[in-house]
Known about the structure:
Layout: H1 5-17, E1 24-25, H2 42-50, E2 56-57, H3 61-67, H4 76-89, E3 93-97, E4 106-112, E5 117-123, H5 133-146, H6 151-168, E6 204-207, H7 210-216, H8 220-230, E7 234-237, H9 244-261, E8 265-268, H10 271-277, E9 281-284, H11 291-298, E10 303-307, H12 311-319, E11 324-328, H13 343-352, E12 358-361, H14 369-373, E13 380-385, H15 387-390, H16 395-413
Parallel strand pairs: 1-2, 2-3, 6-7, 6-13, 7-8, 8-9, 9-10, 10-11, 11-12, 12-13
Antiparallel strand pairs: 3-4, 4-5
Helix pairs in contact: 1-2, 3-4, 5-6, 6-11, 8-9, 8-16, 9-10
The structure holds ligand LCLJCK34 and 4-methyl-5-hydroxyethylthiazole phosphate.
Amino acid sequence: MLPSTGIVKTLCQSLKEFPVQALVVDPVMVSTSGHMLAGPSILDSFREELLPMADIVTPNLKEASALLGGVPLETIADMRFAAKAIHDIGPRNVLVKGGDLPASLDAVDVFYDGNDFYELRSSRIMTPNTHGTGCTLASTVAAELAKGSQMLSAVKVAKRYVEAALSYSKNITIGGGCQGPMDHLLKLKSTVQRRPFDPSDLFLYAVTDSRMNKKWGHSIVDAVKAAIEGGATIIQLREKEVETSDFLEAAKACLKICRVHGVPLLINDRIDVALASDADGVHIGQSDMPAQVARVLLGPDKIIGVSCKTPEQAKQAWRNGADYIGSGGVYPTNTKENNKTIGLDGLKTVCLSSKLPVVAIGGIGISNAQAVMGLGVPNLKGVAVVSTLFDRECVSTETRKLLEVLKESTKIAN
Ligand SMILES: Cc1ncc(COP(=O)(O)OP(=O)(O)O)c(N)n1
Ligand SMILES: Cc1ncsc1CCOP(=O)(O)O
């Protein structure tokens, strides 16, 4: 929002003529650094025209106070009062940002949707580089809403993103002023601990199975080591029968090995284990934790894969913030009970319906991997396999053999 009465009036007129999918208003009047950016004359047009049209308004404490005629706002109870009072002006949702709440270690924001209050906490990042945080938060909310997120999810993702960007840029120096801007490009910089998700990681996707490991006397860690040795490009721990504490220990041990080899490690279904072990992400099914909730819990940097059998599910996965799709069973499988087979045609339909990279799964091995990759759809990036690698005595040899077949199939395709 630009801070001039004329512009606010023109904007409101345009919004009446051309309604938008969602209107996010950051009522820029006082910057994060405390500078006045607009005079009191703008308040009437905010209150009377713009706020009643807004899906959400995101004032900081000083702006909330100004919108309410200068009431002091110093506690979380005050912020709740302000959120309700601003909601009464007309916006559907209000987020009062408590970045400069006195005596608070956490950065606490209060979200109010007209029925319930939510206190959203994140750690306070001590940095002079806070220019642009409010605009970034509001823009991220808008971007999430455009992707189809619910309002509260969008706000949570935005808050996480701002926290991560502030933390990433807390020590950089830009210019000679006492305050600097935050750096939004953390995802593109190489200094973050894990490299960003690369769809080509899906090429040979090894998915573990505790029953198979038990049958062959392999520990999870040994099985993962062997798969990486054979050339697996990504690992998923799909451990349906282990205790949570054993799962967590195994995940931490596997993560060490995966990090050394630059191979991403994902956890099947268990967001809690992924969070506790700091694994690179999760793979979730249609009846697991919804992907948009997983995204809020895991933050913007973790990898999220979603199982999809239909174009509708694939479209939803995209809207929910998934990074890739696992699609199958392409062929019948004994590894997953009662799993519907979608065939090569079903796989192709899912691939063509989505912008996301896809990995095929289900009954895939040496004899049919080439037929799968030969489908020739650009976003089909690889195959995910369980029994072909892990229901075998020598996991590394089997992985190597499959890798050769996959490499051969890409040569043929090119
Ligand atoms: C890469 C990949 N794709 C699909 C699945 C299946 O996941 P889900 O539907 O959650 O079923 P379970 O694996 O939990 O039985 C997968 N695990 N990996
Ligand atoms: C987990 C899963 N999801 C769809 S099929 C399948 C099992 C794949 O196992 P396998 O590679 O042994 O057929």
